[in-house]
Amino acid sequence: MKRMMKIELRRAFTSTGFVLALIIGCLIAVVHWALFVLPVSVTLEEYVAMNKPMMYPGWLYTSWIGSDTTAIPAYLLFLILPIIAVLPHADTFFTDAGSGFIQNICIRTNRRHYYIAKYTATFLSGGTVTTISFLLNFLLSCLVLPAMHPEASAFTSSIGEASTFPHLFFNLPLLYVGVYFLIIFVFCGLLATISLISSYFAGYRFLVVLTPFLLYLTACAIFQLIGLADWQPINLLDPSYPGNTLVAIFVECILLILFTQYGFIVKGAREDIF
Question: Where are the domains of the chain?
Fold first, then answer.
């Protein structure tokens, strides 16, 4: 089991797909920093020079990419998160089946061990590569903006009493950001594992890669139409979303865990799919 896990983790984190996903995510993060964060830092210098204490300056927790989702680079990153999460390793189950790798590996090891290792590597690589993009933008923003505590009276943030974790945001903003890093990691990792299930049915590799993205868009559209914006996946991942998504986060993550683990590990280990 340990050997199989090491093999799959090595394949996931050293793959061309992981590098490509990392480049795409980090490029968007840097573009946002250059176009939307640096100008705020210039304004901050002018603010100090003007000596106008009533004017609230630009600051870290409302300017980094996670709190500036109206900017085009930020919206684009949140939109394509499922694709970035899938690129490192999620399509390898499809290619392993086509090349006969699964049959060969299952002769030498327990079938269930292979499925568990594949699922774990897909989840970890998908969660890691998406979180790195947000972490990079946040750290770059830390270099040029002050990490001042949010002030509710300043009305510079969309977070309010009805939002998710409002007291955490106004009292421990750094921990608030860390919680959302964890949410992005877990949710995007689970989105990546959906491709493992689609490998059973999709006849083409590009369909395996696009399935989580299409389901992501479909879920957003359906929840918007029925008036449940708090349940839209794109809003669950948005640290600046003004609504309360706590229940939706737990419910959707649990459903994804049950669906993906049963659909891939349990069903795959029991049945000779390929």
Answer: 2-270
